[in-house]
Amino acid sequence: MTMFGGTVATGIYGEKEILKSDWFAQRVLMQFENKMFYAPVGYKEFLTQLYGDYMTLPPKEKQVSHHDSKVWFK
User: Does residue 2 fall inside a structural domain?
Assistant: First the structure.
């Protein structure tokens, strides 16, 4: 039987945020910017389910924020 977990974000992705619990059953050690961090063993499946081809940047004109807030820096 496949177990599922709940949302890990804000709910803006709808049913894509229903995640398989076995993706989080173990962890893997990964390097990010010269530091080591743990990630869920199913991180690839998780990211693909939410974002599709998350390793390919969209064209420049489609690189926009999907957040509902704005931030300005001075």
Answer: no
Count the Cβ atoms, other than its own, within 10 Å of residue 19.
20
Domain range for 29 is: 23-55
Per-residue pLDDT of the chain (74 residues; tens, 9 = 90+): 667 666 665 667 778 888 888 998 899 999 999 999 999 999 999 899 988 999 999 999 988 877 777 778 88
pTM of the model: 0.68
Structure tokens at 39: 């990630």
b or e along 21-56 (b: 16 or more beta carbons within 10 Å of the residue's beta carbon)?
Answer: eebbeeeeeeeeeeeeeeebebeeebeebeeeeeee
Does residue 14 lie in a domain region? no
In a domain, 62, yes or no: no
Residue 29 lies in a domain: yes
